[in-house]
Amino acid sequence: MTESDSLQTRMFYDYLTVEQVFPFVLPKVSDTGICYYDRRTGQQLRDTCPGWKHEGSYSTVIQIRVDGNKLTVKGNPSAVNRLDNLDGFRSLDECIAVYNEIVTEYSDQYGFWRLPRFTKCTSWGMRQTEEGSKSSLVGNGARIRRLDLTTNRTVGKGNDRAYIRALSTQRYGYKNGHLYEDGWTVDWKARDHYEKAYGKAQAIRKFLFPKCKRNFGEESSEFRYLQQLANFCDDQGVVRMEQELKSEFLQRERLEWWGLFDEQSFQGIHSKFLAIDEKLEVTAMDYSTIADQLIEKGVVASRQAANATANIALQWMNCPGIHFDFNKSQMKQYAARLGRIGLNIRMPYDITRHSAVTVRRCEEIVTSDVLMLPSFYRHPVAPRHLRLVA
Description:
Layout: H1 3-9, E1 12-21, E2 34-37, E3 44-48, E4 52-55, E5 61-67, E6 70-75, H2 92-103, E7 124-128, E8 135-139, E9 143-154, H3 160-167, E10 171-172, E11 175-176, E12 178-179, E13 185-189, E14 193-199, H4 200-216, H5 221-236, E15 238-245, H6 247-252, H7 265-274, H8 287-296, H9 303-318, H10 329-339, H11 351-363
Helix pairs in contact: 3-11, 4-5, 8-9
């Protein structure tokens, strides 16, 4: 694999929320403000402003909020001034450089004070609540409050919807897959993270086409570009694999203070999600192959245990509406065994989902996380000089 190919295999960032509390009151750059005061005394308690939207070309929107000493920016830096976000920035430095270029455009009404740039943390310390019951680590720079990790997976032309249906049979963590009614999206919802896989060509046509038609017209070069891009995703069978890491997750894993963690940690987190399809090749099998797989994979040690477990799988597949009592330890054991070869009997068996795996077994859907972008693709452009202030 060449160096350029290797670059294409890496994940990129699709959405970013970042905030920073500065040691000074930020300039009032908004035309409107919100003033909080004590009704009894008339004393002013807080002077802040509502958030606003920074609009770039192609209707790009980045949300900005200034609240006293705190600056918050959220949106998709990879989509700034672009028609699409099929590909994006692969480093936080590039993403935050885009945000820094945006926020410094805003100054007070006299043009003297501009919003400051986000800076990397150089140290952190402990902070306790007023009651002293809890403590947390606090950095001296920017804080990541949400981060979306993304990979474009190719499954071959015509296989994208079948692949998504097959993914919906799998559990991620402790969550079952939820397949959307149109069959083009599956997601897994947890409290502190959220995973999703969807057909990229379908998403481009559903969300980007209408906006482009309104803004530029159906005969415009911009609309023709999006049509080319959607057709390219069709030809490659692009399935978008996305992870949203929420504030609670980032805080727990100590991945929130920019500059004080190893960014490569996100590669490991994302790789676990990308491996969700590893068990698909052993689903939708008959009695003997299920038993054989249980033994070959080392899930059970005896043929008797394999046969008993395979029998449960057959009941699940062939008896619609069957109810298993998962409060019983034996049934929990059967579910755990079958889960290790990709059969999730905690979900109702759905032939429309599992038939997709038959396609994989017979026609061999070959997946790849290397998307070689076409020559006409318009890549994201980071600010020429990445001014990162420590």
